[in-house]
Amino acid sequence: MRIDIITCLPRLLDSPFSHSILQRAQDKGLAEVYVHDLREYAVNRKKQLDDYAYGGGAGMVMMIEPIDRCISALKAEREYDEVIYMTPDGEQLNQGTCNELSLRKNIIILCGHYKGVDQRVRDAFITREISIGDYVLSGGELAAAVLSDALIRLIPGVLSDETSALTDSFQDNLLAPPVYTRPAEYNGMKVPDVLLSGHAAKIEEWRHEQAVERTKQRRPDIFKE
């Protein structure tokens, strides 16, 4: 998978892709992440990327021309499956969307800033608009990192145990059950006996029951009988 991220603040994305699983995925050649500085595509000497909104109002709006130039340059080199705009009014990101997008080969992610981008960008270039929650960030960079992480970890070979991602919360419309590790008892708090039994079928039954109960209590909106 190749992910091209377009941003006016590229340094914000230095850290997320330079550590842990995302770094290893790139080192293994399983994922490629390129961050593009939108100011390199600015149309004047001031490297201007934003301007006042027509009709007035507070805040600045990202201009269409630099974004067009950047996206067009990328598309001249390869075909892209999706051009995604990170925005609070996009579709809510969930595990199903992550599963779907993780199968794509080439993706562009556009990070908004200020009051957002000129609507013509969304009309002409964007194939999908995604939100990571009902709140507003200063820009789309952190949201782009969240989306990238959620996709890259699903690529076969990225995680040392490929079954791990398949048992995460939301994969089957359930939250993950409680997990425990050594020691078996700590300050009077004990690990459930069933997990120490070695009986695989009973352990799986217990985990499923716990997942169902946790989902009913915490996320009844996603629970399905």
Concise structural overview:
This protein folds into 2 domains: 2-152, 3-Layer(aba) Sandwich (Alpha/beta knot), CATH 3.40.1280.10; 169-218, Orthogonal Bundle (Trp Operon Repressor, Chain A), CATH 1.10.1270. The chain has helices at residues 20-27, 64-75, 95-101, 119-124, 141-152, 200-218, and strands at residues 2-7, 32-37, 50-52, 60-62, 82-92, 106-111, 128-131, 185-186, 189-190. Strands 2-1-6-5-7 form a 5-stranded parallel sheet.
Low-pLDDT residue intervals, each spanning 5 or more residues: none
Count of helical stretches = 6
Would you tell me the structural class of the helices and strands?
alpha/beta
Tell me the major beta sheet.
5 strands, parallel
Number-wise, the strands total 9
CATH level-four homologous superfamily name of the largest domain = SPOUT methyltransferase, trefoil knot domain
